Each structure stands twice: as structure tokens, then as C-alpha cells.
Amino acid sequence: MSVEPFPSPDSPRVRFGAEMRRLREAAQLSQAAVASRLGCTQTQISRLEAATRTPSKSDAERLDRLFGSDGSTYFIRLYRHIVARSGGPIWFRNWVEEIEPTALVLRSWDPLLVPGLLQTESYARHLFSRGPRATPEEVEKQVEARMRRRGILDREDPPLVLVLIDAGVLRRRVGGPQVMREQLGYLLEAAERPAVTIQVVDPDCLAGMAGAFMIAELPNGQADTIHADSPVQGQITSDREFVLSIRNRYEAVRAWAYPEHVSLKMIEEVRREWT
After folding, report:
1. Protein fold of 90-118+149-273
2. pTM of structure
3. How many CB atoms lie within 10 A of CB 218?
4. pLDDT tens-digit series, residues 228-269
């Protein structure tokens, strides 16, 4: 079961739930009464107000009809704001909005591509532009969102970022030689940051072939949270069983990683090959 981690206090998801609770109490309605009007369960209403469930578009539309006056679209506008801030799939917005910015440590494994947090603009643009039915507007929105993610590395207290990438990523052509030279050069620059460690994994490692993932170690005793890729929809969960499974897989992959100084030398050598 996927469990959504508790969001930060300034999260738009929290604001959505707080306003929902305020209007419900002002109207002297119980959670059960609102659930009946929205066609859902009382538990779902409780989770929306507690910000442990992400609202859907239909939730927002029904709440506007229930509490709005003169065609108010407050909840649907807030919902759109939540979605727009992520610049990516709806299921991914909790990670980029609420997990990455608050993490103490981020561990990642990528068998196919440079991890999103360390992608250059040109590398990301080429990836997004090759998506099915991608429009120029959608591509630019996704690229901008991806570049915003890198902002956490520039903070005074950035998270510790531990990156594992398959050796094949260095030679997987994305956008041509110039794009690849720039991308590998950026990896070398990022690795100069005290909080960033990049290690290349031997191509004979089979433990990580099931797919890419990230593990976020959170503050204040919060449970670790994982993001695991899928061809259809990624999974974000803090369920202990899933987290333990991914942690074990991460350690199995890390056992095949070259030391950091060897990894950086490999990246530099391959960067020179992209001519």
C-alpha cells in the first residue's frame, strides 16, 4: 500500500486541507456530511483535511460546488497550483514539493539515464521532447521544473546526495556529442560540491536492473521515503516493507560501485570521447 508522507507546513496540500476544514466547520457540517455530498468516505475526507491524501481534480470541483458562491473556483485553482508547481506527473509532485526539499540524505540509483536532479537543461530538454505526443509548451514546463529541482543543491544546508549510475549511462547518447559533453562535465562540477558523491557502477551488476529509485532520509524521526520508477506510474511510499526492500537493493548495487575518485576519472575519460 502506498503511504503519502506528511507534507511540510507551507505545502499547498496543507493549505487545501486547512481551508476545507475551515469552511466545513463554518457551515457546521460533519466530515460524514461532507463525505455524503462528495460521494466518498468519511476517512477520505479526514485524510484530505489532514493533508495525508492528495486531492483529485474532482475533489476540488465538488468542494467548489459545495462551499463556493457565485461560481467560485478557489479549490480548483489551488489544485491547479499544486499540479503546476511540480511540472511533472501528478503522482510525482509530492516528491519534488515535499520530500526532496526537506530530505537530509538522498540516495539514488539510475541504470539508464543521468538522474533528474543532476541533469543539464539540454539533456533534460532532449529527453522530454522525445516523450509521446510532447508539445513544445509541455516540454518547456517540464524542463523548467527539472531545473528548479537543482535549487536544493545551492542551499546553505543542502541534503547529502549519494548518486549511483550505471557505467552505460555515460555512453548512452542523449541529444548528441555536445549535449553529452556538457552533461558529463556538469556531473564532474556537481561532484566538487561537498554534499554530492557520484559513483559509477560496474555494468556487470544485475542487482539494479529492476529500475531506478531514490531513497530520502527525512528529519525529525520521520520514516524514510522511497520513489521507485515504473513505465506507467512511479511509486512514492514510506511503507516500511517497501523501504527496507529498496534499501537492501541499494546496498547490493553499491557493492558494485567504483570508488569515487575512480568514478570521476571514468566520467572525464568518457566525456573526452564525446567528440
Report:
1. Endonuclease; Chain A (3.30.870)
2. 0.69
3. 19
4. 876 555 677 888 888 999 999 999 999 999 999 999 999 999
**For residue range 118-164, what is the model confidence (pLDDT) as tens digits?**
999 999 999 999 988 888 888 998 898 889 888 899 988 999 999 99
Here the cell at position 126 is 532532449
Sheet strand arrangement including 105-110 = 196-201, 160-166, 105-110, 213-217, 225-228, 235-237
Q: How many residues does the chain have?
A: 275
Neighbours of 107 (CB within 10 A): 23
CATH class as words, domain 12-86: mainly alpha
Q: How, if at all, do strands 235-237 and 225-228 pair?
A: antiparallel
Torsion sign (Cα): 214, 272, 191, 202: positive
